[in-house]
Amino acid sequence: MRNNSVVNHMIACNQCDSLLPKPILSEGQDALCGCCGAMLFSKKKDAINRTIAVAIAGLVLFFPAALLPIIGISAAGLFNDASLIDCITILINSKNYVIAFAVFMFTLAIPSVRLITALYISSCIKFNRVKPSLLVFFRSYHLLDTWSMVHVFFMGVIVSMYKLSSLADMTIDGGLFSLVLLLVCSTLVSVTMDEHSIWEELEKSLEQ
Ligand SMILES: [Zn+2]
């Protein structure tokens, strides 16, 4: 307990390994290493409210992203469109289980669980409900961060759509816009979330 409180007032520089006293920052300020000038951490402006707003916006987009048609294709006098769930179902029916699983995980599951986790952590801190169990949620959030390969996936989607457009008349529907915005919100939550402050809140609750 006592050692923890001493350690919690110190911070190590990632670049030069200097151990420095942790400064208390106001919102919008950055802490720099006194030895090498590298950034130690920053205190983001209104991080909790911004994270909650982005997470709710992203979660609202979940159902339109999953259920509205993403693209429509007309060829030889026929028109067909499909939602993301339709695409996953078609992949499962054609026994492409691994691709279906990957599409589901990287477009819907991981972004949504990240947003739910970020919303839960931020809400608990906003309403002073910080408990040691939040550590599990925060670790899960970090684990999912490693797997949020949405940019890589989307590059694949855009290249595929570009190739398709030369074969048939293609229309982009509301589902695709919702999906893009859902993924943007999932990525944006990493920008708005002040992880350093959250660690501090969790450390304080563990010390009590
Ligand atoms: Zn340094």
Keywords:
single chain, 208 residues, alpha+beta, 2 domains, 9 helices, elongated, binds zinc ion
Explain the overall architecture:
This protein is an alpha+beta fold and 208 residues long. The chain has 2 domains: 1-43, no CATH class; 46-207, no CATH class. Helices cover 62% and strands 14% of the residues. It contains 9 helices and 7 strands. The chain has helices at residues 2-7, 47-60, 62-67, 84-93, 97-126, 134-147, 150-165, 174-192, 195-207; strands spanning 10-12, 19-21, 30-32, 39-42, 69-75, 78-83, 169-172. A 3-stranded antiparallel β-sheet has the order 6-5-7. Strands 1-2 form a two-stranded antiparallel sheet. α2 packs antiparallel against α8. The longest helix is centred in the middle third of the chain and has 30 residues, at 97-126. The radius of gyration is 22 Å and the shape is elongated. The mean pLDDT is 81. Zinc ion (ZN) is lined by residues 13, 15-16, 18, 33, 35-36, 38. Residues 13, 15-16, 18, 33, 35-36, 38 line the site of zinc ion.
